[in-house]
Structures are given as structure tokens and as C-alpha cells.
Amino acid sequence: MDYEASIRTAYANLTDTMRGRSWYRDYRATLNAAARAASVPTFKAYGIIGVSSINTRPDVGMKWTVATMNGTVGGHLGIAVKRAAAILSSARSFNQARDIACAPDAKSGARKVRNFSCNVATGGNPCKHDVPCVTIDRWAHYVATNGERKDVPTGATYDAVASAYRTVAAELGIAPAILQAVLWVSVAEKE
Prior knowledge:
Structural class: mainly alpha
Number of strands: 0
Number of helices: 10
Low-confidence stretches: none
Mean pLDDT: 89
Largest sheet: none
Number of domains: 1
Strand content: under 5%
Radius of gyration: 16 Å
């Protein structure tokens, strides 16, 4: 499958390529305000929001993260609750919070969780890694496969889809996370 062609086509078919460009920045601002109100360091909030993204819509993940930061840890997958509690109690930096959020036992979702945490922490701007973070979730996979797949890819497929987003984003002159958000806002809204 030509992931790049599918992504290019999806982007070319958008009627509004500006929608979604500020999604990560706006989401980060909301999360930062909630973290300040709960007296939780923002780096911990970024780790918890990553954990919250496992099989959860962003609005639900934000509500759960805010409740968790305010002392109500529960109401999510057991692994998410366990990781959020560990982030709150022991993380001393963003890297530690992110690493707890996507520990090796996260299996297929580890890279998605890691990249989502990074994308929120940077407001969608390129992160400080050698390869820019891009969240490849079920929607990003759906776009890259022209609607044929709607699962979170793993292994080499994850790498190929992420690479395709990076390539097309570079052609468009935008960050890969911004391209992913622009397409997600449009596609998820239609489903």
C-alpha cells in the first residue's frame, strides 16, 4: 500500500486545511491549566495524558487525566490507572513520566502513547528526537490505508506509516504531528 499517496490524497481533499493545526497547542494549554489548578507538574500531566490515550477519545482522556490529577485515580483500563499512579508518585522528569506511560509491557500501543505524550508536550511542534514524533493511532492508520484499516499499527507497519506522515509533512512544510491532527480532525468528525 502506498501510505504517502493516501495521506496526500486525504490532505488534498480537505476543504479546510487550517482546522486541526492548533489542536495539540490548544489541548496542551487546557492540560497545562488543569495541571496548575491541581498543583501537578506539567511533565507529569503529559505522561498521564499519554496513558489516557489508550483506546480513549481525547475529550474523555482529558477528563480522566484532570480527575486523576485531582486525586481520583480510577475509571480507566487497569494498566492506565496503575501507570498514572506511578507517574504521580515517582516521575521526576518528562522523560520518566513518558517512560512510565509507555513501559515495555504496553506492547502495541507503546510508540503511540510515547508519541502522543511528546506531541502534547510540544504543542505539536517537532520534538527533540532525531526523528520527529507523530502519533500514529487508529485514525492515522485509517487515513494512510485509504480507509482499509482502523487499528493501531505495530512493528514495521507503524514505522512505515509514521515515515509516510513525516515525508508528506515535510513536502507540505508542516510538522508531522500537525499533519496528523489536521487529518484526524477532518476524518474522525465524518465517522
